[in-house]
Each structure stands twice: as C-alpha cells, then as structure tokens.
Design goal:
The protein has 241 residues and is α/β, with parallel strands linked by helices. The chain is built from 9 helices and 9 strands.
Length: 241
C-alpha cells in the first residue's frame, strides 16, 4: 500500500520538527509515518533541527552544535511560522520517540556531514534501542558513511540512503551500506526505477511531494511507493476511498 509520510511532522500546518507538527500528524489516521531531522547539541543531546544553524526556525542564531540542550530549549521555535505557535520548543529525539511509540513509523534523518557529529549514528541507535523501537524506526541520511555505521552497530535496523539525483552503481551503494530504503528526490523518480528497485527487494521513498498533480503522478508509479509530503491532507485526498 502507499505510505503517507509527514515531512518534519505536518509542516504545512505547524512549524517543522516541533511537537505541534508531530502531534498533528499523529492525529491524522491517514498518516502512517513521520520524518524528522536530528542533530547533536554541545552537551551531547539529540534534538530535532533541519538546518545546521538555528537561525531560520528559531529566534536564536548560530550552529546547533554550539548550543547546549538548555540553550536550544530556551529558544522559540514556533513564532517564525505563526503567532499561534509562539513558545513552541525544539524537542529532543527522546520526546518524539515516546510520543510516536506504537502509533506511527518514524523516519529519523541523521543530519550530518563529514565529521560534524561523529557519534550521531551511535547515539541514535542506542536511544531507539533503549526504547525498544527498532521495528518502528527507519534511519536515513545523505551521509552514507553514517548509514553504514548504523548497519555495523545493529544490522536489524531498517536504514535508507537519501539521494538527490540519479546515481550510478546504486545497487553497489545499497549493498556497501546495508540500506534497504532509497529515499530519493521525487523529480528523479520514474515508474521503471521504482519497479526495478521493488523487484530487487528495496523500498522507494519519494520526497518532498507537495502539489496535487505531482502527488498523483508519483502515486501512479507503484502501488507501494512511500511519499514524503508537507501536506499529508493533499495526498490522503487523492487516495482511493
């Protein structure tokens, strides 16, 4: 079946990567999965944030890794989106795991590059394992080394490579990293590609598909394609009743 994944929570209706956006997604039965981005604070906590700095989505400034957890959580992460969300905080991964457990799949994107967060993969694996949520989580990243690390730490985790473009030697990359999910920018997705990947035992996740025409096009590629969107209501409205 098609899977509707809410991008950074329901970020079309609430500020991305906040509990407000996550709770909205959890409240919609048509959403089967939620995607979030995680990084590490100065004092080693895993928090939700897409950009490497806090400037765009909070009233603070500077790199995520230059802030302690207390500093990050003192920021307003909602006002930029709208006055109704004033005072919304930056959540920790642990808060999200506790909210989502037993209700929804969670796609945790490790936001890292080079040696920015050398222990992020390990910290994420340990936290998910502590909450016994290995079966409810997918871990993905543009940093394929981080995904290889997750697989080495615990091969039972479902992992995915995030791809922007149409890479060659994709099968080799998946084999090398142990990933079974291909999270790919939707303009590069075609029906033959999805069919071929499924035949080889891989899951395809297309991101970030927001306008109804594109949603309709991508859904038609394969009956089991996963679709990541800021507007889950648009996708749900197009699915057969």
């Amino acid at each position: 079946m098609h899977v509707c994944m809410a991008h950074r929570g329901w970020s079309g209706k609430a500020p991305e990567n906040t509990m407000a956006a996550i709770q909205l997604a959890l409240g919609e039965p048509g959403v089967q999965a939620i995607e979030i981005d995680v990084q590490v604070t100065k004092d080693g906590a895993i928090v939700l944030m897409h950009d490497f700095t806090v400037d765009r989505t909070t009233n603070g400034s500077g790199p995520v890794k230059a802030h302690t957890l207390a500093q990050i959580q003192s920021l307003d992460a909602g006002s930029w989106f709208g006055p109704a969300f004033t005072g919304e905080r930056v959540p920790t991964l642990e808060e999200v795991l506790m909210a989502v457990r037993g209700r929804c799949m969670l796609n945790i994107e490790l936001k890292t590059a080079g040696d920015l967060y050398p222990d992020l993969a390990q910290k994420a694996v340990e936290l998910v394992t502590r909450h016994e949520m290995q079966a409810e989580v997918i871990i993905t990243s543009f940093d394929h080394e981080a995904i290889k690390r997750v697989h080495e730490l615990d091969p039972t985790f479902t992992t995915g490579l995030i791809i922007y473009g149409k890479p060659t030697l994709l099968a080799e990359q998946l084999r090398e990293t142990g990933a079974t999910v291909i999270s790919i920018a939707y303009p590069y997705v075609t029906a033959p590609f999805v069919r071929e990947m499924h035949e080889q035992g891989y899951q395809v996740l297309a991101w970030t598909v927001d306008d109804e025409q594109s949603i309709e096009t991508v859904l038609a590629y394969h009956p089991e394609i996963h679709l990541c969107t800021n507007h889950p209501d648009r996708m749900i409205g197009l699915l057969p009743k």
